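Quick note —
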Amino acid sequence: MSFKRLLRDLDAYIERDPAAHSRLTVALTYPGFHAVVWHRASHWLWHRRLFFLGRVFSQLSRFLTGIEIHPAAKIGDGLVIDHGMGVVVGETAEIGDNVTLYHDVTLGGISPAEDSVNQKNTKRHPTLADGVIAGSGAQILGPITVGRNARVGANAVVVRDVAEASTVVGVPAKPVQVRAQAKPGAFAAYGTPTADLPDPIARAIDGLLAQVGELRQRVGELERDLASAQAVPPPGDAALTPEQSADGAGNSGAPRGTGS
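Predicted structure written out below.
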């Protein structure tokens, strides 16, 4: 681990955490930074086939920071783990540069206890591209990819790929902000933009109400057409005057004459 890379990790906290006042503060008091430093060491041991020592280092890091990162996980520069407690990063997870993770984020697999033998040495965990933000409690599961500058809202459960520069929320996670509206350069705390963020449930209800309004309008038009059709008598059945009605009634009661 080079000194330049260490400074880059420190500066990432200064850039993205307003509570970080200096590099010294981050280096001495931030468990997320400590976890990344421990991981650099355990990752170095793991790739030199010192698997046991790598696991020992990762477990020491977990004990001291509350953050569990598998020694085999690949992590880029500038990772910020804010608050950090409860973060879990799986063995085959990959994290790009300038990624931000909040507490209780899981980069995990799907059904690791099922057929675990055949799952060894296979991609089981997600890949986070550069600039991703995962809000607190987000669960990103399986060998999926979260695109560059994407945002994962707090407590979202992501089981499918996420497009670049998009925002996903909910269980299961669904996009709530189209790519044309997203601002890749803007930082979204906890992965959730707070300005004019559409609520997917409210949007669905609005769509249903709009359809109901259209149906009510159409039913009204049909009722008016039916009433108009009933008010017009059929051709040849013009309305009779009172005199014609009386004559018709008298003639109907008289017997018809017969020829002699």
